[in-house]
User: What shape does this take?
Amino acid sequence: MLKLAVFDFDSTLMDGETIDFFAAELGIKDEVSRITEAAMAGELDFFESLQKRVGLLKGLEYSKVEKISQNLPYMNGAKETIKELQNRGMKVICFSGGFRSATGYAKGILGYDADFSNVLHQKDGRLSGLVGGDMMFGFSKGDMLVRLQNILDVSESETLVCGDGANDLSMFAHAGTRVAFCAKEVLRKEANIIIEQKDLRLILEKI
Assistant: This one.
């Protein structure tokens, strides 16, 4: 029986990449998107790619960061799927290599139990180009998942994970139910459930 469900945020619970929405404000969406794509395909080190992308956001007004973070398009079925998993007795957690400004706000809307993500450093009302937090490295999601499993006394076989990119691989290594959601090939190879349509409710039919 499943007891813990962990979802990625960008391109999983949310339809898009938060950092691309920020970059669009500065007119550098294409440049940042290329780095994001390469990182999610496993072609770049996640930590290095995150530092590089956030560095390009230096100077963006934090008020714009907050406004964008509060107007993101959530994935079809996200709220309903989370609610149903909780009704089945699961804790539902969000792990994101993205940002607390987005995942913290979305928690109140989508209803998951907790979020672990990164924080964009700001100074004098603008982004400094620096970032820190819970999900900085390629191994971070797996590392945090194991710690949560120990705290909650949940086994790998009782754990579901869902994501789309290479930085989700580390949590796939510690879960019995591994959902690749509209995912990169590098992640699809490690999944035992593959969802091709942008509707999270399809997961409910598979578990």
Summary: The chain has a mean pLDDT of 96.
